[in-house]
Specification:
311 residues; mainly alpha; 3-stranded antiparallel β-sheet; 2 domains
């Protein structure tokens, strides 16, 4: 198998997502899935707007620490609005908002018209959407575990600080879990793990670029004053944690699909396309069994009718 092909990275030769798994759910109707995604997008953007509005006039007090760094206090005012674009936490929360916005639009289109823009896009954009999904079902968990496990230094006194911490460091993982449970996607291709780790590497460079251009370390563990060994260990620890979270998310999706098969029966799970190459590996002849989903009316949404044809 060639490494740099669309098939390898999750866009098969037969076409991107032939079963519309990105806009379907095993457990709820497309309309419900679209509404859930839309509400999560609204909450993400409402949270960000409220946060920035509050910081424009007030000052937040946050106590942090790290594995080898004692508790310290930072004050965040209106300058923190611009600085937030250097924090992995806020970049992830912004990304969640846009992911749910885009996916909800596609899902609403599928619910009402049985087609989407996503499935007519060029393969490059379809691949990017698939990678986007892989990051949004992995990064939020890293943010939550790192913050509550190593960085949080006590429950803040202010109501704003309490709410924003719960939103960007807690509900983010709830949103990612909701997406994993409700969507009907196939497990992320293993190659997407390199994308996830690549984004983390790029972010590390962005953090030090922030230090060079704005004069502050995004996270205190990045400061060489605490020792270069500490930086290396943090990087390796976060990379290892990211690998573990990607694997867990992938197998959680597999477990969800297995559960759906048991609940719905094998006939109802014949979505997709299975291609079998004839003769030998050099043959260009393919035989395919295609399951075409005919969506039922929105108000029924019980058992979609499937027409099977031989190609």
């Amino acid at each position: 198998m060639k490494l740099f092909t669309y098939e390898t990275w999750g866009v098969p030769r037969a076409g991107f997502d032939p079963s519309y798994n990105f806009v379907r759910s095993h457990f709820v109707s497309p309309v419900v899935l679209a509404c859930v995604r839309g509400l999560l997008s609204i909450y993400c953007f409402t949270t960000i707007i409220t946060c920035y509005t509050w910081l424009a006039n007030e000052t937040a007090t946050i106590k942090l620490k790290d594995v080898n760094i004692g508790s310290y206090t930072i004050q965040q005012g209106n300058a923190a609005i611009g600085q937030s674009f250097s924090f992995f936490t806020y970049l992830t929360f912004w990304s969640l908002g846009f992911y749910f916005l885009v996916s909800s639009v596609h899902t609403f289109m599928y619910a009402f018209r049985q087609r989407t823009w996503l499935h007519t896009w060029p393969k490059s954009l379809q691949l990017l959407h698939s990678m986007y999904y892989s990051t949004m079902t992995s990064f939020p968990f890293l943010v939550t575990i790192v913050f509550w496990g190593t960085m949080n230094s006590g429950w803040p006194a202010g109501r704003f600080e309490q709410w924003i911490n719960i939103s960007v460091h807690g509900l983010n993982s709830v949103f990612a879990t909701t997406e994993i449970i409700l969507s009907a996607t196939e497990p992320q291709p293993w190659h997407h793990l390199s994308v996830v780790l690549g984004v983390l590497s790029i972010y590390l460079g962005l953090s030090y670029l922030t230090r060079y251009t704005q004069g502050f370390y995004v996270y205190e563990w990045m400061n060489p004053a605490h020792g270069n060994a500490s930086i290396v260990l943090h990087v390796l620890g976060y990379a290892g944690g990211m690998i573990a979270l990607f694997v867990l998310a992938r197998y959680a999706i597999m477990a969800r699909n297995m559960l759906a098969r048991r609940l719905q029966g094998p006939e109802e799970m014949e979505y997709g396309e299975k291609g079998i190459q004839l003769e030998d590996d050099r043959s260009d002849t393919w035989s395919a069994k295609v399951g075409v989903v005919k969506p039922t009316p929105m108000r029924v949404q019980k058992k979609p009718e499937i027409v099977v044809s031989e190609v």
